[in-house]
Amino acid sequence: GGIIGFPADFVVETNGETGSLGFSIEGPSQARIKCNDNGDGSANVRYWPTIQGEYTVHILCNDEDIPHSPFMAWIEAPGNFDSTKVK
User: Fold this and answer.
1) Can you say how many angstroms the Cα of residue 10 is from the centroid of all Cα atoms in its chain?
2) Taking the mean position of all CA atoms in its chain, how far away is CA 20?
3) CA pair distance 13, 79, nearest whole angstrom
4) Dist. CA 28–CA 65, nearest whole Å
5) Which residues of 32-47 are buried (b: 16+ CB within 10 A; e: fewer)?
C-alpha cells in the first residue's frame, strides 16, 4: 500500500535464482519505478503512484511472474491511509 505523492518501497530477494529481474506496475496512473541492485542477491524497489486506487505489482524473472506475483497494493490519498488494505 501507500500514499499518493509518496514513494512506495519494497525489497526483492532472489534467493540465489539467476535470470533477468524486472518489474511492472499497473493501476489508475502510470507509476515511475526505480530499482537498485544491492549486489547481495537483493534489490530495493521504489515506485511513485500519483492517483488513488488499486495497483498491481508484478515482479518478473526472465519476463515471467515469480511465484505469488502479482501483488496488490491499495494507494490512498494523504490522511486516508489504512495499512490493513495491503495484500
Assistant:
1) 6
2) 17
3) 31
4) 21
5) eeeeeeeeeeebebeb
> What does the pLDDT look like over 25-63, one tens digit per residue?
999 999 899 999 898 889 999 999 999 999 999 999 999
Q: What's the one-letter identity of residue 19? A: G
pTM: 0.79
Counting other chains too, the contacts that 66-74 makes at CB distance below 8 Å and 24 or more residues apart are: 73/1, 73/2, 73/8, 74/1
Domains of the chain (ranges; CATH) run: 2-80 (2.60.40.10)
d(CA 25, CA 79): 23
Cell 524486472: give the residue: 22
